[in-house]
Amino acid sequence: MSKRKTIARHLSLICVATALSACALPKTDVVARLGADPVTSGGTYTSGGGLTVAVDLREWQGQTLVCGVWAKSRQQSVLTARAEHQVLGSGAVFLGQERFLSNLLYMRQVDPAPSYGGREANCANTGRAWQSSYATLRPTIRIPRQVVANESDGLLVLGGPIVRFRQTGPGAGDS
Question: Which residues of 30-136 form beta strands (DSSP E)?
Fold first, then answer.
């Protein structure tokens, strides 16, 4: 094989590897247990059921991490069976008015529970240096209202269901 073909082949492999890595889920840097009283939020679907997200801020090697878990209702419509990917993907964690992290898909799924304190959670690095004041502040979870399923014909002639997600607080239930 000529030197030119070898270089072209290596460049092709690098391009394929780069394209595949762009499709990866958000990187999980660390796994840690949530504190005794993590911040919880989430919401419900208009068809019934919902999800809960629980988060803590942590310091790791001088950086600020957001550690979190999520749970979904055991009983919900088939129309929302995979809606959590859309909903979590649109979520964000704020501290005050500052967005610390977008896209909650890195979080670990757990069973619904009355409390999420002590649960093993995936953590993502925010890229921010840790500040000692963060230890006493409580982050906010924000998930926008959204349509997660639309079975209507768009003209509302056939009247198929439209299912919406609304942030209402923890929505997965506790059992």
Answer: 30-33, 39-45, 50-60, 63-72, 92-95, 98-102, 108-109, 120-129
C-beta of residue 91 within 8 angstroms of C-beta of residue 53 = yes
How deeply is 20 buried, as exposed, middle or buried, from its count of CB atoms within 10 A (0-12, 13-18, 19+)?
Answer: exposed
Work out how many domains the chain is built from and give that number: 1
- Collapsing DSSP to helix, strand or coil, 134 comes out as helix
pLDDT in tens, 94-131: 999 999 999 999 999 999 999 999 999 999 999 999 99
Range of the domain at 108: 3-167
* Inside any domain, residue 174: no
Question: Tokens 């990187």, residue?
Answer: 27
Classify residue 27 by its DSSP letter: P
3-state helix, strand, coil in the chain (%, to 5): 20, 40, 40
- 173 belongs to a structural domain: no
Give the tens place of pLDDT for each residue, 2-51: 444 433 343 343 333 333 333 444 456 699 999 999 999 999 999 999 99
Q: Which residue has the tokens 């299912």?
A: 163
Rounded distance between C-alpha atoms, residue 11 and residue 20, angstroms: 14
